[in-house]
Amino acid sequence: MLHEPAVQSGKDPAFAYKRKLGARMFIAYALFYAGFVALNLIRPMWMEKTILAGLNLAVVYGFGLIIVALILALIYSRACGRREASMKAGGMKEVKR
Hints:
By secondary structure, this protein is mainly alpha-helical. The protein has one domain. 64% of the residues lie in helices and 5% in strands. It is built from 2 helices and 2 strands; from the N terminus they run αββα. The mean pLDDT is 89.
């Protein structure tokens, strides 16, 4: 049985865009997560306060972290797909590594 990639891949012309976008999104999410950690270190009692529908801040912030991660993943996927489509349609070349 032959184990090869289903699709041959070459150089990705949108690599520079994807790297920059991914790095920016990572930094934004890391800052949001750092806020969660800092809040736990600096004001741990605040995490016990009920703030929304009987849920405390720790639970709401935790769900917020999960939801934000999913939203960022969707935005990244959509933005990269659009960039690849526009580059393919326009014949643009943007390979910078």
